[in-house]
Amino acid sequence: MNNKDDEKNKLHLNRTNFILLLVAAIVLVVGYIIMSFNEITISPILLVIAYAVIVPFALLYHPKKK
């Protein structure tokens, strides 16, 4: 592969993306901890928010260039 193909296949994640992924990981851990206490209302909501909203947003977010 040439250099152009290498750049095309990279994800180009920056600090903001990693912070959002860290927030998603924290929400996931909290959701599973709450699930261990047999809380069947709050934990699924947290897990769905983390998996379906925060993680995709963190991977797809690109800040606007000035």
Question: Could you characterize what this model shows?
Answer:
By secondary structure, the protein is an all-alpha fold. It has three helices and no strands. Helix 2 packs antiparallel against helix 3. The radius of gyration is 16 Å and the shape is elongated. The chain crosses the membrane at residues 18-35, 41-61.
Structural class comes to mainly alpha
Please indicate the count of domains: 1
Spans where pLDDT lies below 50 across 5 or more residues: none
Strand content: under 5%
Number of strands: 0
Helix count equals 3
> Mind telling me the C-alpha Rg?
16 Å
Shape: elongated
Largest sheet features: none
**What separation lies between the terminal Cα atoms?**
31 Å
SSE ordering: HHH
Question: For the residues shown, what is the average pLDDT?
Answer: 88
Assign a percent range to the helix content: over 70%
Task: Give a topology summary.
Elements lengths: L2 H7 L5 H22 L5 H19 L6
Helix pairs in contact: 2-3
List its salient traits.
66 residues; mainly alpha; 0% strand; elongated
Q: Short summary of the structure?
A:
The protein contains three helices and no strands. The protein is mainly α.
